[in-house]
Automatic annotation (TrEMBL):
The keyword Transcription does not apply. ATP binds at residue 120. The lineage of its organism: Eukaryota, Viridiplantae, Streptophyta, Embryophyta, Tracheophyta. It is found in: Membrane. It comes from Rhynchospora pubera. It comes from the Eukaryota. InterPro entries: Kinase-like_dom_sf, Prot_kinase_dom, Protein_kinase_ATP_BS, Ser-Thr/Tyr_kinase_cat_dom. Residues 28-49 have a biased composition (Polar residues). GO terms for molecular function: ATP binding; protein serine/threonine kinase activity. Residues 12-70 are annotated as: Disordered. This is Kinase superfamily protein. Its main location: membrane.
Amino acid sequence: MNLFCCFSSSNTNATRNAAGPAAESTEESPPTVTSAQPSSLESTRTTDTVPRPKNVAGNSSSQAPNTVPNINNIPTQIFTFQELGAATKKFRKDHLIGEGHYGKVYKGILGKNGRDVAIKELNLRGVQEKNKFLVEVLTLSKIRHANVLNLVGYCADDNHRLLVCEQTPRGSLDKYLFDLAWQHPLDWSTRMRIANDAALGLEYLHNKFNPPLTYRKLRTSSILLDENFNPKLSAFGLSNLAAPVIDTDGNCVPSCAASAQWRVEEDVFNFGVILLELISGRRSIDRSKPSYDQQHIVDWARPMLGDKRRHPELIDPLLKDDYPSLALNRAVDVAAMCLLQNASCRPLMIDVVLSFTAVMAAGGEEITLFR
């Protein structure tokens, strides 16, 4: 069954020519957001009913980055640097949960209500970047979706620029796929539910949020899990403040490797990489493997994507035989379309969401189309 029957036959046959090699990873940095640009994919199922994201380059807000929004119009809480220092015990090392060239992320407990939060301290320089921070905060504060992390508040005291987000109790998805200390591998049903709900969050950003947003560096470490393993896209990943445009992670997008723009098609590619990671239990880059083709998940999977007889070779050994074969075939079909090297042939996220209903149905799962 072709899940993307609305595409032309040439696009369907392109499934066997999945995306090209991934680039070398040089530095871990957070995903960022830019205004979404349209895909040139012709989809008879969606083009008449769903408006494509507006062709707007640059900022994730319709407001210019050098225009400072009125802080009274930002619908979120303002914290003092002193309050956030107290929440993190003066930013102690044992509260540090992540860092990169963009800054550091700490776990904290707000004194007023004892709420667990994650606090991102940004490295920003210059007046324009600091003004842009408030524009980004205004954008983040308006996001409302069950599968996107909520912004709790921010701090803009003196030269300090910090974001405060809700903290998820189970941490990031990569821990449960790749950490050998985790003794209970995620079952097939949980993996596909995580993929489905992450797709819903991404589709919301692309099509329902105004202005449309792209995530850019979507990866397993930016998908956070609540106590019931419900995924939320990290709001920290939606900050367009410090990360370079070129993606050097394992989720490298061929069409964007030398581009100054980021489009919805690149987000779709990265979703395909994550779907492969969920299916296979392999990292996007695994340097312990002997050869380049084995190290990069897309190159490793490419010969198997178009051959249903080889789909079982993609499955995580930890799952053994505990997965529905039809659901596997349909999930691999979705991943293959997302990973096409020709960006214009990739589906939109709304197509991915619709196609995932077949994956969930094949596994006997409850179907949630949109939130």
